[in-house]
Design a protein that fits this description.
One of its GO terms (molecular function) is L-amino acid transmembrane transporter activity. It is found in: Membrane. Keywords: Membrane, Transmembrane, Transmembrane helix. This protein is an all-alpha fold. The model has no long low-confidence stretch (mean pLDDT about 80). The chain starts with a helix and ends in a 7-residue tail after the last helix. The chain is built from 6 helices and no strands. The protein folds into 2 domains: about 70 residues, no CATH class; about 110 residues, no CATH class.
Length: about 180
């Protein structure tokens, strides 16, 4: 693990530095995800403030933090995969339906001020590097891990690019309203 590398390299101080950095990174990642969830929910259903949505999502996620079994996390991940597939289907259908409406003209500006935040959102899906060593320790066949990781990144990248392209094709610059 990264802690072991810190311990072997710089002793106890190295291990503590690695633990501190990883904890700060993981807490920051969780905060970013909570804020993104709250912002997206507010756009779809603006009945509460962003602070309330962050609190609601934090309370919903607390039980998942206590899961220690990688097997159970695997089962929960399959639920996540199914929800992603369903979401992709809904977004593609909505985008195609909106794109073929007659009378509406869609404006497209490929490079706008929202592009940076869209790419930042995309890159948060690759922020699992601190968890790789924990997952690798519990894998039955560690030699296949690199292939699985590359495939996972390729799938995540493809899903994000596909959804962004479908949404932009169907809604143009109006996608920023959602």
């Amino acid at each position: 693990s990264f802690q072991d590398v810190g311990m072997r390299t710089f002793g106890v101080a190295g291990k503590l530095a690695v633990v501190l950095c990883m904890d700060i990174f993981m807490i920051g990642l969780c905060v970013i995800m909570l804020i993104l969830f709250a912002q997206n929910t507010m756009r779809l259903w603006p009945v509460l403030t962003q602070s309330w949505w962050v609190l609601i999502y934090a309370l919903l996620m607390i039980p998942f933090v206590w899961i220690r079994s990688m097997k159970l996390i695997g089962w929960l991940s399959s639920v996540g995969v199914l929800s992603i597939i369903a979401t992709c289907i809904v977004i593609i259908i909505a985008s195609v339906t909106n794109a073929v409406k007659e009378g509406d003209t869609l404006e497209y500006h490929l490079f706008n001020d929202q592009l940076g935040s869209a790419m930042a959102t995309l890159m948060t899906s690759f922020g699992l590097t601190t968890m790789v060593s924990a997952v690798l320790n519990s894998v039955e066949e560690p030699k296949k891990f690199n292939k699985a990781l590359i495939m996972a990144f390729a799938i995540v990248f493809t899903v994000y690019i596909g959804i962004m392209a479908a949404g932009y094709a169907g809604y143009g610059d109006q996608i920023a309203q959602y």
